[in-house]
Amino acid sequence: MSRHDGRSAAQMRPVKVTRRYLRHAHGSCMFEMGDTRVLCAASITDGVSGWRKGKGLGWVTAEYALLPASTHTRSRRESTSGGPKGRTHEIQRLIGRSLRSIVDMGAMGGEYTLNVDCDVIQADGGTRTAAITGAYIAVYDAFSTWREAGRITDIPLLDHVAATSVGMVDGELLLDLDYPEDSIAEIDMNVVMDGSGRFIEVQGTGERTPFDRARLDSLLDLAAGGIERLVAMQRELIDGGADVLEL
Fold first, then answer.
1. Axis-axis angle for helices 127-148, 86-100 (nearest 10)
2. What value does the mean pLDDT take over residues 81-90?
3. What dihedral angle (degrees, nearest 10) is formed by the CA atoms of 86, 65, 190, 233?
4. 17, 46, 56, 232: which has the fewest C-beta neighbours closer than 10 Å?
5. Is pTM beyond 0.90 here?
6. Three-class DSSP category at 78
């Protein structure tokens, strides 16, 4: 099939990362994937929640929000409409789990909390996967700031983490679905992996049709190829020290 934006089935949307986007966060970036744009910020604060006190370990938590004008129709801020909805809670937990899987919380320098904020300023599909991929850059830079301040000697990251979406539209398997594709997909899946090619989380649904093991394997292979490119981009950005990188 021909995708509406001219991409091949295994082609991602253009990616652009702008680091150090915010002045006051310990680490931040603007992560753009096609028309989806997510502002990711990471800040380290003293202390951990009561249930974690006294263990000498840090903690990582995440918050996610769709800003009111980020979608086709303006939505009210959740802070003024009864608090975060179910979808928001689900995505926040996903981002937090994904980041905690690659952070050595025993090497954060003590009982500190890494707060990661992912705010979607424009949504065109794949906001949760963009948030995870961009959040890694913000987290790395936050720990770099922490190290420069003398709080830690090494960056407490065990690996990279990145995510992408895959799905089936009109019987064809596609990488990195945008909103027009996601809204009509027969199968919709979000995949999170580390830099070693191991799965952290797989969220898959047969929206309009069930799928067998062979199709699942094909979708995971397609996602793995996309995530490998995203991790390579993260490595190039960090190793090269650039403030802006496009893929």
1. 50
2. 80
3. -160
4. 46
5. yes
6. helix
